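Figure 2 data, in text form.
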Amino acid sequence: MGREIESKEITKVLDILIGKTEATGSHLEDSYRLDNLRTLIDVTNWCMDGLQYAMDSGQGRPEASMAEIGYVAQGALLDYKEWIDALLCDK
């Protein structure tokens, strides 16, 4: 079963659908961007839930394909943890 849309295309669509999230200093514009940010947070939560489910579904499994899915998902979550830790420690 092949993928219909590649990752780069998906992120382009999400960028268009979610919109800009950076603060501008304009009250009106920032209210729209805050809504966009809340949407981005919801989408991020959905993605993180997907990674957790993938990790849980493969951890400790004897089947190589399942174990690999769990391992790859866990690796991604650990990479995000490291990135977030570094990001927040610099603030």
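Caption note: Residues 7-89 form one domain.
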